[in-house]
């Protein structure tokens, strides 16, 4: 199932000249189901002319756009089934937001200009730097790096999948512990959803929910079919 993407843009920080490119980059990660631009709508900064966004008037207060964007991001994360959050801003203050979204198991993509500090770059799963007049390049698809753990996950999914439908993500934890003695709490990702989302070349997930399923992508494991998973 295609990942659902939420695009949230700090219009007081990023130039409207990058509006179309931000959407093009975001489409690499799935289907854009919401795209919002936060700024003081009374200012003529060019964002009014960019098609594809819902304009959110943040008012004139200090950091008003930042605060409203962060509030909406958390509301969406807790109430709607979005897998990927794209935060377009060069403001390092958003490092706290993307870090929290990652803890919730969402894939976080940062988009910003060269001035973006290391704090925001380091806390995003990926960060794309905008360049002046730079054309959008297709996302490179690296050869999947299949670890022993990835192959173990594949074997469990294969055993419990029927007709290619996959298995419930909620069932993965007990099965992995029962068969291999592995607890996801001991790994940096902390949750199985976060671990699987970080490996889109290997696994395909349903939107978050109690019945959400996970499937492995056979082409992603082509390099490891003969390797042992014990």
Automatic annotation (TrEMBL):
Domain of life of the native organism: Bacteria
Pfam family, one: NYN
Segments forming a coiled coil: none
Record domain NYN: where: 4-130
Protein name per the record: NYN domain-containing protein
Organism field: Ruegeria sediminis
Lineage per the UniProt record: Bacteria, Pseudomonadati, Pseudomonadota, Alphaproteobacteria, Rhodobacterales
């Amino acid at each position: 199932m295609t990942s659902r993407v939420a695009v949230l843009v700090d219009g007081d920080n990023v130039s409207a000249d990058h509006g179309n490119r931000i959407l093009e980059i975001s489409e690499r990660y799935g289907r854009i189901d919401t795209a919002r631009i936060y700024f003081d709508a009374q200012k003529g900064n060019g964002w009014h002319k960019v098609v594809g966004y819902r304009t959110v008037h943040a008012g004139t207060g200090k950091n008003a756009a930042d605060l409203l964007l962060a509030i909406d991001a958390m509301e969406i994360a807790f109430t709607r089934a979005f897998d990927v959050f794209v935060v377009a801003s060069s403001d390092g203050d958003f490092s706290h937001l993307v870090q929290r979204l990652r803890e919730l198991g969402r894939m976080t993509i940062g988009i910003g200009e060269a001035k973006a500090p290391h704090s925001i770059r380091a806390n995003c799963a990926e960060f794309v730097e905008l360049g002046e007049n730079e054309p959008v390049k297709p996302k490179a698809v690296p050869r999947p790096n299949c670890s022993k753990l990835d192959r173990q996950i594949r074997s469990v999914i294969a055993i419990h999948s029927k007709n290619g439908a996959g298995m419930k993500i909620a069932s993965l934890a007990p099965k992995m512990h029962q068969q291999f003695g592995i607890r996801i709490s001991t790994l940096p990702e902390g949750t199985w959803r976060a671990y699987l989302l970080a490996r889109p070349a290997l696994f395909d997930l349903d939107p978050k929910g109690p019945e959400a399923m996970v499937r492995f992508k056979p082409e992603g494991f082509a390099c490891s079919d003969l390797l042992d998973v014990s």
